[in-house]
Specification:
The strands form six sheets. Strands 1-5-7-8-9-10-11 form a seven-stranded parallel β-sheet. Helix 27 links the parallel strand 20 and strand 21. It is of the alpha/beta class and 774 residues long. The protein is globular and about 75 Å long. The structure holds glutamine and zinc ion. Its EC number is 2.1.1.14. Catalyzes the transfer of a methyl group from 5-methyltetrahydrofolate to homocysteine resulting in methionine formation. Keywords: Amino-acid biosynthesis, Metal-binding, Methionine biosynthesis, Methyltransferase, Repeat, Transferase, Zinc. Pathway: Amino-acid biosynthesis; L-methionine biosynthesis via de novo pathway; L-methionine from L-homocysteine (MetE route): step 1/1.
Length: 774
């Protein structure tokens, strides 16, 4: 069989959760035992088949390998690990029990008996999270799953020739960690040569099944991991792909990259027999900068030009995309038009959002629209721009309409920004603030508090649904929320916490709540994207200048404070986190948008102060996750992100105690940023990562107050008094006791009242014990 050339238009991957989150729901049902494995598989099969049908409907070819077989039940990195047998030994039971394959994958993802699950971390600089495979010196790689083959055959049975897609060997190893008992200094990447034969075997099986092209996703080639140690790593990459390319029985190989500039890896791949290479031309590679040696080698390869932005929701400039694709054709005759990344980062379809203002809808492009755009540019490239003139012009018109529409630029906001100076980002010195705050607040040693949310019960969710659905009046809803607040205040008083919170019952989500209450945002109804496994988020769309028409949180905080003589902490989401968890306008730098958000929060803080709130927390859990992939970009990021937080908080009176809260691990790289925030008190997730962070913070010379979490809220388990006391004592060994706060790792919204109350009781008992010792 002679494999055909690479299709003219394609995408790197398509959302897998289902248009109506069918997969998400089926996963939850299956785990709850309400779906059998067989029923669950039927749902997954139906989703895969509807994806293929839909992609053909949107213009991709039915039988030319242009449809990527990119489905995953939980996570594509997990799939790749399972496919090559990289399964930690603690799961031997599950694997040997020959349970169905998805059952084994779920065990790795969610834990099984005593076997703790694989760790999870962010997939490059996106909001998608992947599982972290564990590799050791003895991990036995072997092609041990027929998932890819099964999906390919399933597709072929209904008349599709699709393109099996799997994370490539280099990326799989670079994203893995050393298994726990591996010798010191062992690097998973050192196993590349052992892993390649498992991929070769897989390729041969796919070839027998009739696959013409296979896509190996190698986005890690783009990251610093490779750039830092380029020579050695790239030599290994080249050797690996030479070997895969040398296999006699294999489909053609398409190696995709994404999330940035392919850099030196392009030369390495060009020197191997792979038939097609993918480039992110939206956020990365500039074709004219490719050196002549590499150019010569690319001439007989297909280049897959990622010119349609796979991770933004904007319709974008199609004319520019076509021009870029045409530039790539100077390098090789065979150019395919594609998305810059998989489309898992965007919602399914703009046309599901019937409630949106029609004008805004014309500016947007979700996964389905992106597929069509790829087709348009592909046709333009093949037959000349005149063949798609209408589509190009329509996109250009929408693009310029977006730049000029009312609300996109708000003169009042811009005038205010133009008057800002360095002064607006500074409070009086920490020492002075500390003095007045001590006097004003008169808190005990080791003050106790929580991070903000109390359990979001079904009752709360139902009340919100009733109100939004028009079944309950605003008055009924407000009374309901007030009762919730009163209960939470009473509970905290009974527990004996020192700084109380109102519990956030009025918030569906810490970002969406602010988006709904600020100008410049729109929220979607069906715009779900996968964060991990069955967890999806619905990021708001930040399309215009941000401003605040009226106070947002003040009423709730004032009410909570009226119920108690203890201080109630106001609770806001910070500018960086709002940006990180939204789809943000691309017509100005993120840093400009951050300033606008900061000003809105600055006003909210002033209003909270005026309402008698003396402690205000501004959450920045996403501070770490927005950090750019490349080290060279860090300084700039830290400057604007920290600057925005300071702009939001710097007008607070010296006696107002500003708290911030951060979560997720690996804070090491942003310690300077944490210091830069200059918050009076910083609470930080640490129990979850065994308190490693407190040493880093102590070593960094950070001298403000700090609350390392001592209760891991990620599981329903209630930690014992001894356990939390140990963590607190551990923290007190490295942090001055009079700067130490006592709190959980994060908010309690995902917990139930029973376990949360029991756990908080133990946390408070630990504080009492440690106070008695000093
Ligand atoms: N205040 C928020 C809460 O308690 C913070 C959540 C977060 O850090 N992700 O839920
Ligand atoms: Zn948190």
């Amino acid at each position: 069989m002679t494999a055909r050339s690479f299709p003219r238009a394609t995408i790197l991957g398509y959302p897998r959760i289902g248009r109506r989150r069918e997969l998400t729901k089926a996963l939850d049902e299956r785990w709850a035992g309400r779906l059998t494995a067989r029923e669950f598989d039927a749902t997954a099969t139906a989703i895969r088949s509807s994806i293929r049908e839909r992609l053909v409907g949107l213009g991709l070819g039915r039988d030319d390998s242009s449809i990527p077989e990119s489905f995953s039940l939980y996570d594509h990195v997990l799939d790749a690990a399972v496919t090559v047998g990289a399964i930690p030994r603690r799961f031997d039971d599950v694997v040997n029990a020959r349970e169905d394959e998805s059952g084994a994958a779920f065990a790795l993802a969610r834990g099984h008996g005593d076997a703790s699950p694989l760790a999870m971390t962010k997939w490059f600089d996106t909001n998608y999270h992947h599982l972290v495979p564990e590799i050791g010196p003895d991990t036995r790689f072997r092609a041990s799953s027929n998932r890819l083959i099964r999906d390919f055959i399933e597709a072929r049975a209904s008349g599709f020739i699709t393109r099996p897609t799997i994370v490539g060997p280099v990326t799989l190893l670079l994203l893995s960690k050393a298994e726990i008992d591996a010798p010191e200094g062992f690097l998973p990447f050192s196993r590349l040569a052992d892993l390649v034969p498992a991929y070769a075997r897989l390729l041969s099986d796919l070839s027998h099944a009739g696959a013409e092209w296979v896509q190996l996703d190698e986005p890690a080639l783009v990251s610093d991991a490779v750039a830092d140690d380029a020579d050695r790593l790239l030599a290994a990459v080249e050797a690996a792909y030479r070997e895969l390319g040398a296999a006699t029985e294999r489909p053609r190989l398409f190696v995709s990259t994404a999330y940035g500039d392919i850099g030196g890896a392009l030369a390495s791949l060009a020197a191997t027999p792979v038939e097609a290479i993918g480039l992110d031309l939206v956020h990365g590679t500039i074709p004219s900068r490719i050196d002549s040696g590499t150019r010569a080698r690319l001439a007989d390869k297909a280049l897959v030009a990622g010119v349609i932005d796979g991770r933004s929701v904007w319709r974008g400039d199609l004319e520019a995309a076509l021009t870029t694709a045409a530039d790539v054709r100077r390098l090789t005759r065979s150019v395919a038009v594609s998305t810059s990344t998989s489309l898992v980062h965007v919602p399914h379809d703009v046309s599901l959002e019937q409630h949106l203002e029609p004008r805004l809808s014309t500016w947007l492009s979700f996964a389905d629209q992106k597929v069509q755009q790829v087709g348009v540019v592909g046709r333009g490239l093949a037959s000349g721009s005149s063949s798609v003139r209408g589509e190009l012009d329509a996109a250009s018109a929408a693009f310029s309409d977006r730049l000029n529409a009312p609300g996109v630029r708000n003169q009042a906001v811009r005038a205010r920004v133009s008057l800002l100076g360095a002064r607006d980002r500074y409070r009086v010195s920490w020492n002075q603030r500390r003095e007045v705050q001590k006097r004003e607040l008169a808190l005990p040693l080791l003050p106790t508090t929580t991070i903000g949310s109390f359990p979001q019960t079904d009752r709360i969710r139902r009340a919100r649904t009733r109100y939004l659905g028009g079944f309950d009046s605003a008055e009924t809803y407000v009374t309901f929320i007030k009762n919730e607040i009163a209960d939470v205040i009473a509970l905290q008083e009974e527990l004996g916490l020192d700084v109380l919170v109102h519990g956030e019952p009025e918030r569906n989500d810490m970002v969406q709540y602010f988006a709904e209450n600020l100008e410049g945002f729109e929220v979607t109804l069906h715009g779900w994207v996968q964060s991990y496994g069955s967890l999806c988020t619905r990021p708001p769309i930040l399309w215009g200048d941000v401003s605040r028409l009226a106070p947002i949180t003040v009423g709730w905080s004032r009410y909570a404070q009226s119920l108690t003589s203890k201080p109630v902490k106001g609770m806001l989401t910070g500018p960086v986190t709002i940006l990180a968890w939204s789809f943000v306008r691309d017509d100005q730098p993120l840093s400009d948008t951050a300033v606008q958000l900061a000003l809105a929060l600055r006003d909210e803080i002033a209003d909270l102060e005026a309402a008698g709130i003396g402690i205000i927390q501004i959450d920045e859990p996403a501070l770490r996750e927005m950090l750019p992939l490349r080290g060279v970009d860090h300084e700039h990021y830290v400057a604007w992100s920290v600057g925005a937080f300071r702009l939001a908080t710097a007008a607070a009176k010296p006696e107002t105690q500003i708290h911030t809260h951060l979560c997720a691990s690996h804070f090491g790289v942003v310690l300077d940023a944490i210091k830069g925030l200059d918050a009076d008190v910083t609470s930080i997730e640490s129990a979850h990562s065994r308190m490693e962070i407190v040493d880093d913070i102590a070593a960094s010379g950070f001298d403000h107050d700090i609350g390392p979490g001592i209760y891991d809220i990620h599981s329903p388990r209630v930690p014992s008094v001894d356990e939390v006391t140990k963590l607190l004592v551990r923290a007190a060994e490295v942090v001055d006791i009079d700067r130490l706060w006592v709190n959980p790792d994060c908010g309690l919204k995902t917990r139930g009242y029973q376990e949360a109350t029991a756990s908080l009781r133990n946390v408070l008992e630990a504080a009492t014990r440690v106070r008695q010792r000093v």
